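ok trying this again, last paste got cut off
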Amino acid sequence: MKATELSKRIAVNGQDYPIKPRHISRNIGDAFRKRIYEQVAEVILLICKKKSLDIWKPFALDEVYCLYSRGGILCSLDERQKRIIDEFATEWLISDDPGGLLYRVTDEFVQRCIGSSPSEEFLCELENNESVAAADASPPLM
């Protein structure tokens, strides 16, 4: 398996993952090649943020179906729209639940979202970390 294929399949789990749900802005732009996929990703991101701003928690596709149909994106969820969400799940999510009911975002999902739409907070943290690293790398003053 190629490294890029593997990164799609790594479920994001736990508090140690450096990119948090709060680090990604709501509108994720064109991170997933199709606007309809971006809409699904934005709903998933909203669900993740409602569960926790600091930890990527698992969620059910039923939560996505429900919020997608009520979230102002579409008036109702028909079979075609459900199929789009299922396609998205196959490509960008992973289920490590024995019953297959709970899903997690993958590293690839998070990387695409943060690459397309980092929050201001994330950019500030990144800038601060780079400043600290640069100060640590500079020679001592005499």
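PB: full thing came through this time. Residues 11-135 form one domain.
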